């Protein structure tokens, strides 16, 4: 493993964020004066970043009151105006990227290119929904009850207020990218970002205001999820939750009691399959990205790898060697292949999973150690072989830079073992394009990438993204990703003949005429 003595310029642990920036962002939080403050610290070196208010249930209620009032005016605006805000936002996010990337890195400890992926995702989401909202939302003519006589139109109305609860791992894009379609559909937002990463969420929201979003329409409350979650859910019409499966179950119960809809994007234990006909060099590089982007703290990153016997002894050593050569580093330069973990909790899980596996007989092919010489929360990218079911990391999400490789006889065994999990978020298959596309439909995962790790499916914003099994409920992206924030309404206008007996007509006669009519309608080629 390289000790990552990266060039000192731009790669030393960064200094603190400017005081006036931190103060300005903290002021965007909706909180009564005098609330206790909670500090956040930089994973790279433990330095204090800044403080945000510890909001209460009263603050959440006030945020909901303000956003609700602003939403009425926002929903009345033409869609073209809402769209213009998002197109300006797209440009602002790209123009201000240096500052946004600095804040994201300081707060998460991720390397710069992982921060950039988030930023690009925000811009792509803004562009996609700005350009498609009109077609998703426009009133649509539907087949009426009676041909010609019933004119039926489906409408989509904003739900009103949307709650967004987001995690720390992609704190930029997960704070705003699910909100963008909700806003375009005419809703207001109350966001609760993770307590570890409030400033990244706040810079993303500040830029929305600069792009022209009404100030009260997007409210941010900061504090512990277990305190603010319930009041947030109590006062919204829909919840967009991203986080762990355990918390997903809690918020799902709360939403169910209120009979409101929700989307839950949860955890994963994502498999990669490498078959003998894969391009080996591309598969090695793809596996690096798939396993170690954002230090493996990516819901769709790969933690299990099934490699076909015929290629195993060439692929696995080449992969392990490439992993050993990865450069780790703290700092705001572009040089590091991987950054830090985000918190001591994450470091504990990763260390516990690797130590448990090794104690039970797994072999370390690369990495396997924490790296306090680089920063308090660094852990080496790690490849393990010989992982068995009694080891915690075989089935539990590690959410760190650790992958277990296993030899399989053929594609059939690979598919079977890939599906042998409670999760079903993402999967990756390396083989020929045609074979990969066929095998993909047999994988129980919401997204399957062929000859890519995760980015091909994730960044296909026109297509739905989300989890099967314990990995989630609902989808983001595409048509589903915006229509879920709307109430659909069917308006049917009946002309001429009523749908019922004509006054004075004997009921039996009416039923007989209807029967004949239904038989004729079945033969009509233009009817569904
Ligand atoms: P977490 O569930 O602990 O926290 C996520 C958010 O929920 C945070 O904002 C937190 O404050 C809040 N929260 C915590 N307890 C709550 C409660 N009782 N009520 C309401 N909100 C509460 O998850 P985490 O550890 O921060 O995030 C990592 C997890 O998120 C991993 O499992 C990862 O796979 C998952 N994730 C999934 C996706 C996806 O798209 N499927 C994306 C990113 C992360």
TrEMBL record:
**Family named by the database record:** Belongs to the aldehyde dehydrogenase family.
Domain Aldehyde dehydrogenase residues, every copy: 38-491
- PROSITE patterns recorded: ALDEHYDE_DEHYDR_GLU
Enzyme class comes to: oxidoreductase
- Name the residues annotated as catalytic in the UniProt entry: 265
E.C. numbers: 1.2.1.79
Lineage top rank: taxon:
Bacteria
Q: Give the UniProt keywords, A-Z.
A: NADP, Oxidoreductase
- Give the matching InterPro entries: Ald_DH/histidinol_DH (IPR016161), Ald_DH_C (IPR016163), Ald_DH_CS_GLU (IPR029510), Ald_DH_N (IPR016162), Aldehyde_DH_dom (IPR015590)
Q: Which reaction does it catalyse?
A: succinate semialdehyde + NADP(+) + H2O = succinate + NADPH + 2 H(+)
Question: What are the GO MF terms of this UniProt record?
Answer: succinate-semialdehyde dehydrogenase (NADP+) activity
Q: Name one Pfam family in it.
A: Aldedh
User: Which protein is depicted?
Assistant: succinate-semialdehyde dehydrogenase (NADP(+))
């Amino acid at each position: 493993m390289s000790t990552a003595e990266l060039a000192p310029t731009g790669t030393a642990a960064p200094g603190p964020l400017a005081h006036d920036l931190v103060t300005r962002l903290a002021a965007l939080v909706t909180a009564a004066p005098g609330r206790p403050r909670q500090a956040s610290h930089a994973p790279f070196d433990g330095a204090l970043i800044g403080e945000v208010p510890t909001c209460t249930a009263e603050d959440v209620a006030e945020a909901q009151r303000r956003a609700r009032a602003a939403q009425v005016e926002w929903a009345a605006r033409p869609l073209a105006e809402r769209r213009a805000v998002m197109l300006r936002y797209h440009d602002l996010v790209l123009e201000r990227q240096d500052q946004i990337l600095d804040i994201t890195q300081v707060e998460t400890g991720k390397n710069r290119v992982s921060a950039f992926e988030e930023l690009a995702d925000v811009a792509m989401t803004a562009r996609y929904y700005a350009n498609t909202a009109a077609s998703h939302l426009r009133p649509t003519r539907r087949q009426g009850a009676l041909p010609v006589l019933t004119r039926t139109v489906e409408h989509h109305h904003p739900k009103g207020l949307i709650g967004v609860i987001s995690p720390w791992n992609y704190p930029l894009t997960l704070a705003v990218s699910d909100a963008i379609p909700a806003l375009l559909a005419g809703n207001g937002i109350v966001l609760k970002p993770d307590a570890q990463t409030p400033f990244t969420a706040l810079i993303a929201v500040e830029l929305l205001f600069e792009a022209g979003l009404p100030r009260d329409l997007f409210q941010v409350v900061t504090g512990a999820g277990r305190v603010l979650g319930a009041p947030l859910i109590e006062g919204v019409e829909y919840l967009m939750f991203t986080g762990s499966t355990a918390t997903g179950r809690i918020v799902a119960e709360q939403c169910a009691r209120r009979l409101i809809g929700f989307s839950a994007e949860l955890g994963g234990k994502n498999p990669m399959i490498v078959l003998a006909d894969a391009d080996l060099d591309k598969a090695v590089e793809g596996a690096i990205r798939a396993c170690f982007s954002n230090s493996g703290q990516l819901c769709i990153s790969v933690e299990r790898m099934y490699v076909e016997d015929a290629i195993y002894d060439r692929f696995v050593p080449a992969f392990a060697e490439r992993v050993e050569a990865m450069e780790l580093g703290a700092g705001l330069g572009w040089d590091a292949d991987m950054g830090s973990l985000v918190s001591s909790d994450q470091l504990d899980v990763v260390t516990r999973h690797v130590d448990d596996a090794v104690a039970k007989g797994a072999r370390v092919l690369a990495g396997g150690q924490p790296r306090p010489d680089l920063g308090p929360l660094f852990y080496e990218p790690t490849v393990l072989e010989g992982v068995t079911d009694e080891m915690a990391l075989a089935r539990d999400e590690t959410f760190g830079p650790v992958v277990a490789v296993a030899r399989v006889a053929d594609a059939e065994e690979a598919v079977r073992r890939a599906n042998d999990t409670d999760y079903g978020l993402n999967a990756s298959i390396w083989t020929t394009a045609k074979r990969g596309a066929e095998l993909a439909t047999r994988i129980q995962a919401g997204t399957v990438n062929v000859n890519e790790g995760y980015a091909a499916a994730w960044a296909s914003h026109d297509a739905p993204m989300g989890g099967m099994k314990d990995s989630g409920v609902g989808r983001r992206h595409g048509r589903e990703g915006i229509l879920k924030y709307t109430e659909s309404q069917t308006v049917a206008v009946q002309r001429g003949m009523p749908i019922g007996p004509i006054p004075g007509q004997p009921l039996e006669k009416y039923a007989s005429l209807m029967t004949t009519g239904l038989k004729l309608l079945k033969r009509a080629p233009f009817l569904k």
